[in-house]
Design a protein that fits this description.
By secondary structure, the chain is an alpha+beta fold. It has helices at about 10-15, 25-40, 70-75, 80-85, 125-130, 145-150, 175-190, 235-240, 305-315, 360-370, 380-405, 415-420, 425-440, 450-460, 470-475, 480-500, 500-510, 515-520; strands spanning about 20-25, 45-50, 90, 95-100, 105-110, 170-175, 195, 200-205, 210-215, 220-225, 225-230, 245-250, 255-260, 275-280, 280-285, 290-300, 325-330, 330-335, 340, 340-345, 350. It contains 18 helices and 21 strands. The longest helix is centred in the last third of the chain and has 27 residues, at about 380-405. Bound molecules: flavin-adenine dinucleotide.
Length: about 525
């Protein structure tokens, strides 16, 4: 029989990890606290402490997610409806790209597959042939979630309809500060100890160089066996104390600043994240229940902070709720995610701009790697090395997908975009592009997170069709295939017509109480 009980003498005498200290109370810190508390809930000897500085505060941005967030909530047995109500969340079916493939262009990157296979061959092959012949609509039209997003609608995927073109997935837009607060309450109920204080000094073991204790400005000392650095861009443990090093990817992702400014909602909330290309970068627009999050990601060589703030101010859809706030960043990755007895997550581990809303997902992925490879004791160099290698590979796949957006842009005549189109790209991405053009396929490694359908959305959105489609398509009657595609399109149009508006769906099922929304907007 399995048991989690341990004899006290056994615990005292071994060198197992018995104390985890998390530094930082932003999204990453409280996600780590919740996930670790859930993992060790039945473990009598593990102590989890989170220390955060009220003085320093959190970054407070990070509002669009990917569907994996739903798995995170499920793991913690958090009901989605409760989470949505308390974090002012809305639903996200896709990302809409405006102006990336030319000034008036628009396409979606949805969280679902395109169409359904015909006669055992993937939809893509039929679509490529018919698109070349001018007999198929843009690929978005064969995706229910893209069409619902276009129409400002939302409905949950219905049980029993989890296949074919009616299948789709969704994510959330939420208020990052409220999410941290929600997870804080969850974690503290699960036994996580919370300490408020600013770390003034990190004590390292003279022999091993391991972190032994944190000394606080306010006085007091926190000891631990394993430290999780979620201290944001500062990297208080991983960089300031351990000098792990950072690898910049700025040669491929030239944007190095963002300016953020929330505004009042004046339009019904869209059920997708808007990504709008602009002359020196791109803007995000993320609708929450009580406000809209706006930001402009730009390259400081092409736009000053004042110009960027002005661009943002002049394009938001409602009265500003705060002054524009500039956030400088260096895109890249920490050289080791796990160094000695410090594991870093969130902004302390690296930064990829929020074009595909992947940062919070990467926190989740990092936690899965840590929990899945939790050491019996540290050091365990082989284990740490393996986790570092895998994590880095995962970051690189996502990095390549983001670079693709810049590389394929079609905004000719604008210096920033011309530079991006002509820049050198990583070999891994060059191979992916070449393979797709020739075969319509995506390298297995490249599709670890962004699946083939995601790459197809981007290539098709930028007007790139592969040279290849499967020969079996030529065996089928062309008119019949065209008819199949039309009925798929009309089936989707009917499902969209039946769905409520996104606003009506939120109001009916998971609206944040108005008094709470007003209090939050006021603060
Ligand atoms: C412009 C921008 C837009 C973004 N948009 C998205 C998005 O749409 N989707 C997405 O998934 N992600 C997005 N992100 C990323 C997202 O914001 C972060 O991944 C996420 O919020 C995690 O932040 P964090 O917890 O690592 O850091 P922070 O929020 O910065 O928290 C750091 C914590 O460390 C504490 N701390 C720091 N120093 C000390 C010290 N000396 N002593 C004690 N405590 C200390 C602070 O008090 C704070 O609690 C965006 C990021 C930026 C910059």
């Amino acid at each position: 029989m399995l048991t989690t009980q341990q004899g006290t003498s056994e615990i005292m005498s071994d060198n197992r990890i018995k104390s985890i200290v998390i530094v930082g109370g932003g999204t990453a810190g409280w996600m780590a606290a919740a996930a670790l508390a859930e993992r060790f809930i039945s473990n009598r000897y593990m102590q989890i402490t989170l220390v955060e500085s009220r003085e320093i505060g959190t970054i407070g941005v990070g509002e669009a997610t990917v569907p994996h967030m739903r798995e995170f909530l499920k793991r913690l047995r958090i009901a989605e409806v409760d989470f949505i109500k308390r974090t002012s969340a809305t639903f996200k079916l896709a990302i809409g790209f405006d102006g990336w493939a030319g000034k008036d262009s628009h396409f979606f990157h949805p969280f679902s597959e395109h169409g359904v296979p015909l006669l055992g061959t993937a939809f893509q092959h039929y679509w490529v042939k018919l698109r070349r012949l001018g007999r198929a609509a843009p690929i978005d039209r064969y995706v229910l979630s893209s069409e619902m997003a276009r129409a400002g609608k939302f409905a949950l995927p219905r049980q029993g309809q989890g296949s074919g073109f009616l299948f789709f997935n969704y994510a959330f837009h939420f208020d990052a500060t409220l999410v941290a607060r929600y997870l804080k309450s969850w974690s503290m109920t699960a036994g996580v100890k919370h300490v408020e204080g600013t770390i003034a000094n990190v004590r390292l073991n003279a022999e091993t160089g391991f972190v032994e204790a944190l000394e606080l400005n306010e006085g007091g000392r926190i000891e631990g066996d394993l430290f999780i650095d979620c201290s944001g861009f500062r990297g208080v443990l991983i960089e300031q104390a351990l000098a792990t090093g950072y690898e910049s990817w700025g040669q491929w992702l030239p944007c190095d600043r963002a300016v953020a400014m929330p505004c009042e909602s004046r339009m019904p909330p869209s059920s997708y994240t808007k990504s709008i290309a602009s002359s020196g970068g791109w803007q995000w627009r993320i609708p929450l229940q009580h406000r809209v999050g706006n930001g402009y990601v730009y390259c400081s060589r092409y736009s000053s902070d004042d110009e960027a703030a002005q661009t943002l101010r002049s394009t938001v859809e409602g009265p500003a709720l705060a002054e524009p706030r500039v956030l400088p960043f260096t895109t890249g990755i920490r050289k080791k995610i796990w160094n000695k007895n410090v594991f870093c997550l969130g902004l302390a581990s690296g930064f990829l701009e929020p074009l595909e809303s992947t940062s919070i997902y990467l926190v989740q992925k990092g936690l899965a790697a840590l929990i899945g490879s939790f050491p019996q004791a540290i050091p365990n160099p082989a284990l740490q090395e393996d986790v570092n290698r895998r994590t880095r590979a995962h970051w690189e796949h996502i990095r390549d997908f983001i670079i693709l957006h810049y590389k394929l842009n079609r905004r000719e005549g604008e210096p920033f975009w011309d530079e991006c189109r002509h820049m050198a790209i990583p070999d891994s991405l060059a191979e992916t592009i070449e393979l797709f053009r020739a075969t319509g396929r995506v390298r297995a490694e490249a599709s670890e997170f962004f699946k083939a359908s995601s790459w197809l959305s981007m290539f098709a959105g930028f007007g790139i069709l592969p040279d290849y489609y499967h020969p079996s398509v030529d065996d089928a009657n062309e008119d019949e295939i065209a008819h199949e595609l039309e009925s798929m399109g009309s089936g989707i149009a009917r499902a969209v017509a039946d769905a409520p508006t996104h606003q009506a769906f939120v109001q009916a099922n998971c609206a944040m109480p108005e008094s709470r929304a007003r209090a939050i907007a006021g603060s």
